[in-house]
Amino acid sequence: MPNGIWRSAATLAVLVLASFGSVSAVAADLTLTGFGTIGYARSDQDFQYLRYIDDRGTFKTDSLVGVQAEAQFDSQWGATVQAVASAPRTRDDGHEAKVRWAFLSFRPDNEWLIRVGRVRPPVFINTQNAEVGVTYEPLRLPAEVYSLSPVYDFDGGAVTKTWALESTELSLDAYWGKTNVKFRFHSQNEPLQPYFPERVTVKGLILSHTSETLLLRGGAHHATVETAGPDLIPETLSPISVPGPPPVGGTLFVPTGFKPQFDFTVLTIGADWRFNGWRLTAEYAQRIVPDVKIAFASKSGYATLARQVGRWTPYITYARLLSDPDVREVYQGINGTPVPLDVQAGPPFVPANAHRLLTDGISVYDQYSTMLGVSYAFSATSKLKFEWMRTKVGLASSLVDGEVHNKAFNVFSASYSVAF
């Protein structure tokens, strides 16, 4: 594992132990657990996918180490802190150790659970255990779905109501929170990818139905995104007619409808079914952004079929991520339109690559992936995984750095995950 991860791991251990140093004396029960993954991924192309994966190979995409401390003060009150060292969320270089969970919990009875602090709601089936690789078979959770938000941890609160039925359980999660993020825009031509600071306020409801062999989950989530810096968010890129025949004249696109914030809604639904060694997991998500035509409105989904054979579990996954037609239309129209020579040579002296730079600010997605892999369980807390993934980019994808259109590539990965 890279040296930076180990330095970050030491930092997170100090963070967790310091957080509980003052409460351990009064805690009736203090539990310390850990988890980690060392993973290597390499593609057959020189452009970077998921920030780091290219033909030079990387450990950064999948490698991490985490520590979690839980204090139970009595039958009702408890506290949890979890810290993870991994590749940073707010830049592309180095490593970082961050507190992902830090909340106080109150359970007045078996039906109610109240948490206040930094919480992570169960947006998807594996959201809350995403960093613990031994808890699922695929080497990497499908980016087409799980990358819909740069973070899933929010400072706020969550309330869970549980109904115990005859042989099943029904639960409703309601949450509200805020967080500061740095949203990454992919660039087709620049080597350094820009990050823009934003403040996000979220709230949502999640309904789950659990039985011995089946988990069903659906949710409705609403978010407000505000700019945390001086930049405003354009609603769209509008065409301006430049007089004259092409290439002297033509169409110039400019940002219009600037606003300090915008709202969007996310709808999620998923199922996880187990039967006689077989496991079928499928999830679908839709991002609805009514007021910004160049935002990340999209539909995505995946399905994974796995079969346990002794300690081995081979699996196949198909995943799809596609921006809404309006977003793709704006991107395609601007990216294929040259800047008129008249506005390049004279006022306002627009650079020739202006349209290309504008499309870098459009979060457009058109890709699908097929993953074939296998996991080997040494024990319930130790798992080795191998995977071949073939991804096809259509119009473009903001998960890829560089100008990549209508191109397929392969990613070969291996990882080892433990929990202790």
Question: Can you tell me about this structure?
Answer:
- The chain has a 16-stranded antiparallel barrel with strand order 1-2-3-4-5-6-7-8-9-12-13-14-15-16-17-18. The protein has a two-stranded antiparallel ribbon with strand order 10-11.
- The protein contains 5 helices and 18 strands.
- It has a single domain (107-419), classed as Porin (Beta Barrel).
- It starts with a helix and ends with a strand.
- With 420 residues, the protein is mostly beta strands.
- Helices cover 11% and strands 52% of the residues.
- The protein is globular.
Brief rundown of the structure:
The protein is mostly beta strands. The chain has one domain (107-419): Porin (Beta Barrel). The protein contains five helices and 18 strands.
Helix content: 10-25%
Low-pLDDT parts are: none
What percentage of the residues does DSSP assign to strands (E)? over 45%
* CA gyration radius, whole angstroms: 23 Å
Overall CATH class: Mainly Beta
Number of domains: 1
CATH-derived topology: Porin
Distance between the termini: 17 Å
| Elements, N to C (H/E) | HEEEEEHEEEEEEEEEEHHHEEE
By DSSP (H or I, 4+ residues per run), the number of helices equals: 5
The helix/strand class is: mainly beta
Largest sheet, spatial ordering of strands: 1-2-3-4-5-6-7-8-9-12-13-14-15-16-17-18
Keywords for this entry:
16-stranded antiparallel beta barrel; mainly beta; Porin; 11% helix; 420 residues
Topology:
Elements lengths: L2 H19 L7 E15 L20 E9 L4 E10 L9 E14 L2 E8 L23 H4 L7 E11 L4 E16 L10 E16 L3 E14 L8 E7 L7 E7 L4 E15 L2 E11 L9 E10 L4 E12 L1 H11 L5 H5 L8 H6 L5 E15 L2 E16 L9 E13 L1
